[in-house]
Each structure stands twice: as structure tokens, then as C-alpha cells.
Amino acid sequence: MSRTTVATIHLGALRHNLERIRELAAPAKVMAVVKADAYGHGLERVARALDGAADAFAVASLGDGLRLRAAGHRQRIVVLSGPDQAGDIAEMQRLGLDAAIHHESQLHWLSETSPTRGRLRVWMKIDSGMHRLGFAPERAATVHAQLATMPGIDPDIGLMTHFAESEVFDGERTRQQIERFRNATYGLSGPRSLANSAAVLGWPDARADWVRTGGMLYGLSVVDGKSGADFGFRAAMTLSTRLIAINTIGRGERIGYNGLWECPEDMPVGVAAVGYGDGYPRSAAAGTPVRVGNRCVPLIGRVSMDLITLDLRDAPEAKVGDRVVLWGPELPVEIVAAQSGTISYDLTCGMTRRVLFVEDDA
Ligand SMILES: *Cc1c(COP(=O)(O)O)cnc(C)c1O
Question: What does pLDDT average to over the chain?
């Protein structure tokens, strides 16, 4: 147990972040995006923490909707990719899930849907420029009319689009996507939803009736050079382990696999019990900060499966058994992500099964 890497999920931070999103997005309603096991924080755990506080949950797949219903959640749940096959529709009706509808194939399945199981609530997804999912803007009015006449569908049809780079606050592409969405949905009835986390911060025009926030809920940022804390959010995950060895290694010796890092002098090298087998990124560069006790020290050498090596020259008080924090409120995961060539979301989503999850109210 002492060698276990621990992900501590801060339930108070989740609740704080949701409140902060509400303030920023008001009067819009908030869909708490809990796809990918709540960005690696644990679907049921996060949903329990936010029960009653979020206006709806958003998930990627029917299976996650089923998990939330099984856990007893009664809120609206929006399945962001909608049905993947015809049979999913009856299941979504049974579970009372909202379906995003983005493709002609789904329209065909829906046209054969009977209203007897209750009317399915749908969100029509328009591709305003990201070119992943959605109907072409020119098709929006026609598809909306088609959906509105289907007996198995709730006539209050939501209108949705997704941004490709809303974290670029002065970018032309988001401006253009907002414009295209507005034109495509002009005169159509129904609630509008455009904004993901970054758009809530940077694109007030996109807040509309519902925002769909994931990253910010967990205190994460995708804005270059900024952490969630810079916007008033609190990190909802601390990843920690222990220091299990300190060795004095001589000048000119090389550390770890392939000897990527050479000791410039005789020096103390710390070894912490975490590696890519836990989800700490193998691509983390030498110099990535790691907290030992109350101090940040640089990672040195290559991240291995179970272990990392640390330069302890500036931490003379460090001792075996000390707590080591890889990221958390005192060490933004965005910094580790930037040093690893990825984004914070990728890291929190990447926790492996051997990581022990615990909760606190912080
Ligand atoms: C993941 C996702 C979101 C949430 O994005 P964040 O950047 O995490 O806020 C919103 N909408 C859709 C369609 C998504 O797939």
C-alpha cells in the first residue's frame, strides 16, 4: 500500500468550480460534462458531488448515461454523440436520456421511433466549422422541420454546435463559427448551446441558453500559459506518491534508461514511486517540476514504468518516505502537460487502474 500512487479527488473543488461556472455563464444553464469517466476523476463520484447543482450531465455514450441512471441520478443527461445504432433509441427513451442528433443515419432511425415509450428529447448538432460531428448549416432548417414532425420526438428541439479553438480568445475561427451557427439557426425555436469551457471564459456571445463545461469543472485550463487557478478555479485532482530512495550519484554518471541525463557534480538523486504505468506521462521532459515536501524539484532522466528520478540538490531536507506530488492545487497539471507536449485533460484522463482513488472535501 505504501508504494501506491494516489489520486485524491477534491469534492469541494468540484462544487466550487460549478458555482464559479454559474457566475460566469449566468443566466445560462450548466451542463456538467462528465464524459471519459469525468475526465479521469470518476463518473459516479463526480456526479454524486454535483447532484442537484448541475442542470444536466453530458456524457459521450449511452453506456455512461446508463451508469448515471443506475447510480440514481434523475437529472437530464445529454448523450453528446447520440445513438450509435438504431437499437440505442429505445434504450435512450427507456432511460430518459437526451440525444444529440448529428447525422442522416440517426434521422432515419428516429423516423421509425414510436412515441409509446415517451418522447425522446433531442439536440440537433450543427457543424459550424469544426468538421467533426454535425449537420451542414444549410441543412439545419430542413432537419429541424423533419425532427419537429416526428411523433416520437419532443418538439422542443435543442440547437447545438461545438468550437474547434475557443481557447484562442481573439481567433477568427470561433467568431466565424458563432456567426454561422447564428445564421443557420435563425428563426428556429429551441434552446441554444455553443460554449465549452474556454468559450465561457473568452466568448461571451456564445453563452446562449446552455453552456457545456468539462475542463473548468475539474479546475483545468486549455488556455495557453494559464492554469485553472488563473481563472478562479480549483484543481479537483492531486496525484501523489512517496519518495522511496535517495542515492548519491557521482559527477559524470548518467541517470535512468538510455542515460539521458548526466550528473554535473556529485549529487543526491531521489526516486519516487510513480511512472507511466500510473499515467504519469513518459514524455515529461527533464526539468518538469515535481513537489517533494514543500519544494519543487526538477525531474531528471527518463520516466520509467514505475519510477521517476529527481534532482534533489535544492532539497537537502528531503528524506525517504516524503510525500511527492506530481500535480494538484500547488502544482498545476497544465505545467506538467506543457512539459510533456500535451494538454491537462490528457493527463487526468490517463490514470491507470493501479492508481488508488480517494476523496476529500477540500
Ligand atoms: C467535451 C465536450 C465539451 C466540454 O469541453 P470542455 O473544453 O472540457 O469544456 C462540450 N461539448 C462537447 C460536444 C464536447 O464533446
Answer: 96
Comparing CA positions, the residue from 290, 260, 284 lying closest to residue 272 is 290
Where in the sequence of the chain do the CATH 3.20.20.10 domains occur? 11-221
Report CA(59)–ligand 1 centroid distance (Å): 9
pLDDT tens, residue by residue, 133-170: 999 999 999 999 999 999 989 999 999 999 999 999 99
pLDDT digits (tens, 9 = 90+) for 24-45: 999 999 999 999 999 999 999 9
Which atom of ligand 1 is found nearest the CA of 196?
9
CATH of 237-360, one of 3.90.76.10, 3.30.1300.10, 1.10.10.10, 2.40.37.10: 2.40.37.10
- Rounded to 5 degrees, φ, ψ at 198 are -60, -35
Residue 215 near ligand 1, beta carbon < 6 Å? yes
* Alpha helices (H) along the chain: 11-25, 35-39, 43-50, 62-70, 88-95, 104-111, 140-148, 172-185, 197-202, 333-339, 344-349
Q: Which residues 6+ apart lie within 8 Å of 296 measured at CB?
A: 289, 290, 331
Q: What is the pLDDT of residues 87-98, one digit of tens each?
A: 999 999 999 999
Cell digits of residue 108: 432515419
Question: Quick one: 11-221 is in which CATH superfamily?
Answer: Alanine racemase (3.20.20.10)
Residues 275-312 pLDDT 10s: 999 999 999 999 999 999 999 999 999 999 999 999 99
